[in-house]
Amino acid sequence: MLSRLAALAAALVATIVAAPARAQDFPTRPIRMVIAFPPGGPTDFVGRLLADKLKESLPQPVLIENKPGANGAIGADFVAKAEPDGHTIFLSTVGAIAITPHMRDNLPYNTLWDFAPVTLVVRNTTVAVVRAEHPAKTAQEFVAIAKQKNGSLPFASTGVGSTTHLATEMWATVAGFKFVHVPYRGAAPALTDILGGQVEGFFADVPVLMPQIAAGKVRPLGAASSERNPMLPDVPTLAELGYTDTSSGNWYGLLAPAKTPPAVIAKLNAAFVAAINDPVVKDKLIKSGAIPVADTPAQFGQFLKQEFERWGNVVRERGIKEPS
In this structure, which topology does domain 126-223 adopt according to CATH? Predict the structure, then answer.
């Protein structure tokens, strides 16, 4: 009996000693960064930009693995169930982490229990646009037109419960207009129909809109954010125009599976924060329309809780459910 207890004690000591050693050696194989969207989009751009920079500081490569579908839930669930050793991480947008959980009763993961925060990566300003030929030159003129149409004005989004949909709901509530919600499978087809005149308005992240704005094909009316985007300094926020409580910007954050050792989280945080703050990387992010952040796991964890609660209130107040 004593020998058995001694063996168990020895095994426990070995486990305790081995844990720091594993963290010290991390990473021992390539790191998979899961992105819940197809290649070529803004989230994919940010992930690949960081992965390329991390080649200089990590002994193992960071490989992008695209797992699109279900508003990000497929990628989120994959990471939530991965081995918690830091070799599988999730570059998530706000949707899968803070919005979708309030729209589905059968979600296979729990945002607050199944993930360990690493760092907030970037913030993305959400901007309302119309086609260049639209009669509305300002947000106020657009609201007046929407009121005249008395609920028949078609407004695009990238899907039910997306930040682009919720931004529209928040603006319409504050401004007092109604609209016909036209959800699309992504920004590209929504922009196509904006340009073609099939829909009259659309909210999207600045990185998505920048090429069309620069080409003069769409006109920005206002930003659903607390401050102006540095790439669009002349575009006022909706709050500046009198539409308060309309801040609904997107963000990208890095998470690992829950129970990932704190020492591994610390190494991931240090590597990614250094990459985000690299002058070349930061310049590319800003020019794309994103706003670099980089913070501590504790700061990001607190931000996640606040966002989870805030978006939960928005979804419940407006009775938004994922289509069956």
Answer: D-Maltodextrin-Binding Protein; domain 2 (3.40.190)
Residue 103: exposure state from Cβ atoms within 10 A (0-12, 13-18, ≥19):
buried
pTM: 0.86
Cβ–Cβ < 8 Å for 110, 101:
yes
CATH 3.40.190.10 range(s) for the chain read 126-223
What does the pLDDT average to over 186-210? 94
- What does the alpha-carbon distance between residue 130 and residue 113 come to, in Å, rounded to a whole number? 40
Supply the pLDDT for residue 105.
84
**Which CATH superfamily groups domain 28-124+250-318?**
Bordetella uptake gene, domain 1 (3.40.190.150)
Token digits for 296?
A: 């501590």
Q: Give the separation between CA 233 and CA 236, rounded to whole angstroms.
A: 8
Q: Which pLDDT tens digit goes with each residue over 215-265?
A: 999 999 999 998 999 999 999 999 999 999 999 889 999 999 999 999 999
When mean pLDDT is compared over 1-15, 133-147, 182-196, the highest value belongs to 133-147
For residue 203, the SS3 value is: strand
From-to residues of CATH 3.40.190.150 in the chain: 28-124+250-318
Per-residue pLDDT tens digits for 258-308: 999 999 999 999 999 999 999 999 999 999 999 999 999 999 999 999 999
- Taking the alpha carbons at both ends of the chain, their separation in whole angstroms is 58
